[in-house]
Amino acid sequence: MRTRIKVCCIASPQEAQIAIHAGADALGLVARMPSGPGPIPDAMIAAVTACVPPPVATFLLTSETMAEAISAHIRATNPSTVQVVSHIDPAESEKLALLEPHVRRVQVIHVEGPEALALIPLYAPHVHAFLLDSGRPNAAVAELGGTGRAHDWAVSAAFVRATDKPVFLAGGLSAANVAAAIQQVRPYGLDLCSGVRSNGQLDAAKLAAFVRAVEQADAELTSPLA
Question: pTM for this structure?
Answer without folding.
Answer: 0.93
